[in-house]
Amino acid sequence: MNKAELVDAIAKQTGLSKKDSEKAVTAFVDAVTKTLKKKGKVQLVGFGTFETAKRAARNGKNPQTGATIKIPAAIAPKFKPGKALKDAVNGKKK
Asked: Which CATH topology does 43-94 take?
């Protein structure tokens, strides 16, 4: 599902216009992004948690040449699904 399909699905389920649904999706993405930039976390009970994790510098290989390259340290966003989401995906009922 891409952004346009998500907007359509939200519009159908909520009765909002596509324009309002797109504003809501954009606002959600912006809010999560701003929070993660500040190294905060966004926890949606039952759905999951968006947070950041530090990745240490490491050595890697260029897949085309096989040469060793240094990959710098970085802060990466990550998502940890909640129990309710995991259960729904695995077909378990409440």
From this structure: HU Protein; Chain A (4.10.520)
